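ENTRY TYPE: paired fold submission
RECORD: A
CONTENT: sequence, then structure tokens
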Amino acid sequence: MHLCIGTATWIGVSTSIFRNDPVKPFWGLSHIDPQKYIIAGEMETGGGALMWFRDALGQEEKRLAAETGKSSYELISAAAEAVPPGSDKLIFLPWLSGERAPVLDHYARGGYIGLNMGHTKGHMARALMEGVAYHLRWICEEMERIGFKVDGFNGIGGGCNSNVWVQIISDVTGKPLRVVQNHREAGAAGAALTVAVGLGVYPNMDAVDELIGISREVQPDAARWKRYDALYQEYRSMYEVLSPVYRRLYQIP
């Protein structure tokens, strides 16, 4: 399984057997290898949700980043890491631009549920990361339901810069997550390797697998998973409750 934590965030599997669900469809794409397919589930705003948070609420982090030379995302991640797992029962719904998978819902919208006077910006940052992770778990479960075994991820994208976010995703999904070396340039590297296969430098795409280096691997924590599992069940119920509300809101002029 492949996990890209970019502006949009998605999980994909390279497979020789095409499987999909006509009711809750994933992408079904032709692989560069004519004998394979890519089945992928994309959420609209994963890394994009954190970008929204930085731009809407992170002015202080931007100022400190300019003064210290650190990334504003690094400062936001540090604030999130200081908050206990579960964000003191604050849950973020990451559907800021509607949703694609595992439900196609253009009306869905984001929000914080459970916000109280004790919550800080750090709670909101961590809850956002956890909300994205909850949605990735939902995608994983639907992929497993149609027959794909998810035993871990190779991760790429800018979100992999955040150690706390990578750990949260592993804890929430209960899967190990391996961060690919040079994960921010993975798309360019993949394109170059595809050209190399086309030129005959490598016999096929399987032959380049061993060239993909892993910079680090994180394992899920059983105690954190148990806490996240309870919160994930509530996350799932929130979509069912709020889905008709989103449609009614859309109808209000």
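RECORD: B
CONTENT: sequence, then structure tokens
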Amino acid sequence: MGAPFSRLRQPSRPIPPAVTALTGLSDALVAGQRIDPAEVARFVAPAALVVAHNASFDRRFAERFCEVFVTKPWACSLSGVDWAGEGFEGTRLGYLAMRHGLFFDGHRTHHDCQATLEILARPLPKSGVPALAQLQGARQTSWRIWAEQAPFEAKGRLKARGYRWDGAGQPRAWFIEVAEEERAAELAFLQAEIYAQAVQPPMRPLTAYDRFSDRC
């Protein structure tokens, strides 16, 4: 494992006292600090995979800050590991660390990253394989399917099946992401249970290079 990359940047407004109490970061500590995108690009360049614990949140900010993150495949340790199936009652990083017998100073990025690596390297309690092994599926193509113009009364059935509401994208509709081998069954569900007729809902393939990105 290489040396961690950790930098500070002065924000555009004063740090609230509550944030200082939580993280230890103060206005004096970050005064005059900046993060050089070129330095970030050099550090990230050798990476074969970027892992984040909630990549849907982290990737959008990373791509806006430095273009190198657009060129890398991403995986999510929050959604990409079957934590529930392995017997975990939650997915928050602090909870997972506690269940693995790990204790760390949270709320600072480099500490969170090191804790995530430690958790992913440990064998899962039921399957016995490291959690990192489950993230190999991130490289497989999946499909995002939108239940566009689904009847309002179908909301409960869609939520129960795992659909989420996308109110900011196009189309504005309930959507789900499924593996390639599950796509035909999902289309059959929509036609039989939601629309009661043959339809072809909007869908698109996703890979690790665009999954979790605003570009989706």
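NOTES ON RECORD B: The radius of gyration is 20 Å. The chain has two domains: 36-136, 140-206.
STATUS: closed
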